[in-house]
Amino acid sequence: MEHPENSSEYAGLQVNAGVAQPSIVNPYLSKIRKKRHQLYSPGEYVEGILKGDVSMLSQAVTLIESVLPDHQALAQEVIEKCLPYSGNSVRIGISGVPGAGKSTSIDAFGTHLLRDYGGKLAVLAIDPSSEKTKGSILGDKTRMEKLAVHPKSFIRPSPTAGSLGGVARKTRETIILCEAAGYNHIFVETVGVGQSETACHSMVDYFLLIQLAGTGDELQGIKRGIMEIADGIVINKADGENVEKAKLAASHFRNALHLFPMPDSGVLPEVRCYSGFYETGIDEILKMVFDYVDKVKDNGYFQYRRNEQSKYWMYESVNERLKSDFYNNSKISEMLKATEAGVLGGKVTSFVAAKKLLDTYYEGLRNT
Ligand code: GDP
C-alpha cells in the first residue's frame, strides 16, 4: 500500500516500503522451555538434592520461587522431606550499603573459606528491590568471579516476590534445601538499607556488617540500630592510602560498641579491617566468625538463637498467610476500592472501615 506521507502534501519526503524481517522469536525456544519446566515427583527432587545434584537443587529452588500454586505445593512437600537433613551448617549474613564491597568480599571470604575449612558453600541473597529492578544485583555470579566457577559453591540470586517477607521466606526455605544438599556453609547477602537486614538477621547464626571508612556511615549505623544486631563489624577497602582511615574508623566502632550492653550471645562483637579486593585480612575475619560460632555452641546460644528464629518464622508464616488470604478474597477485593474511597472522602473512619472489611471476610468464612 502507498504510504500516506508520500502524498504530494509532504513535499520533499519519500517513504520507501520496508523489507519483511525474519521473526525475532527463536523457533527452538519453546522446545528448550518445555524441557526446563519438566517437573519431578517430590521423592525425585529429594533424592537428587540429598545426592548433592546441583541441577535438581536449582530446579527445586525455582519451585520455591514460583508463584504458581501447584509449584508451591510441590516445593512445600520437598522442603518438608528435606527438613530432617537440614540444620547442619553455619549460616552467615553479610550486609553493607551498595558499593561497600559485598560481592568482592564474598568472593574473597568464600574462596578462602573453601580452601582452609573445606566443605561446600551456598551464597544466597535477600534483595527486596529485586521486584522493581526485575533481577537482583545481589548474589550476582558475574560479580563473584572466583566463586562462580568454584566446584564447591552454589550461588543463587535473590528471589523476587511482592514483599520483603515473601523474599525472606523463600531465601530461608532455600537454606533448608542447600543444607540437605550438603552445603555446610551458607552466606546470605543483603543490602544494608531498610528492613532487609532484620530479615537476614532472623535466619543466620552470625551477622557480619561491612562498613567503609569515612563515609559518615559509622553514625548512621548506630542510629538505625544496626550495630545492635551485628555480631561483627568489618571495615573494607583498607588498602593503599585508605589504611589509616580504616584503622581510625575501626577504633570509632570499637568505642561505640562499648556503649551498648553485652549482647545475649555473651560475646562482644569484634571489629576488623581488611581489603576484599587485595584479599588481605580475610583469614582473620573467618577466624573471628568461627571463634564466635565455637563460643556460642559451647554456651548454648547457637541453638537458642535457631529455636527463636524457628518460632519467629512460624508467626511470620501465619501472618503472611492471613494477609494474603484476606486480600485475595474476592469479596474483599470487590469492596476494597470503595471502602478506601470512603475513608479518603471522610465518610467513614479508618477503624469502622477496617471493621466492616474484617466482618465481611469472617462472615464469608463462616458461610463456606
Ligand atoms: P557491593 O555493591 O557491596 O556488592 O560492592 P562491590 O563488591 O560491587 O564493590 C563496589 C566497588 O568497590 C567495586 O568497584 C570494587 O572493585 C570496589 N572494591 C571492593 N572491595 C574493595 C577493596 O577491598 N578495596 C578497594 N580499593 N576497592 C574495593
So what's the overall shape?
A: globular
- Rg, rounded, reads 26 Å
Largest sheet entry? 7 strands, parallel
Q: Tell me the span between the first and last alpha carbons.
A: 60 Å
Which range does the strand content fall in?
Answer: 5-15%
Q: Helical percent range? A: 40-55%
Element-level helix/strand string: HHHHEHEHHEHEHEHHEHEHHHH
- Per DSSP E runs of 2 or more residues, the count of β-strands stands at 7
Number of helices: 16
Low-confidence spans: none
| Mean of pLDDT | 86
Quaternary structure of the protein: single chain
Largest sheet, spatial ordering of strands? 3-2-4-1-5-6-7
Bound molecules: guanosine-5'-diphosphate
Based on helices, strands and strand pairing, what is the structural class?
A: alpha/beta
Word description of this protein:
The protein has 368 residues and is of the alpha/beta class. It is built from 16 helices and 7 strands. It has helices spanning 29-36, 42-50, 54-65, 69-82, 102-117, 130-133, 145-148, 164-180, 196-201, 217-223, 226-229, 243-258, 282-299, 301-328, 330-344, 350-366; strands spanning 90-96, 121-126, 153-155, 185-191, 206-211, 232-235, 270-273. The chain has a 7-stranded parallel β-sheet, sandwiched between helices. It is globular, with a radius of gyration of 26 Å. The termini are far apart. The mean pLDDT is 86. It binds guanosine-5'-diphosphate. The site of guanosine-5'-diphosphate (GDP) has 15 residues, from helix 5.
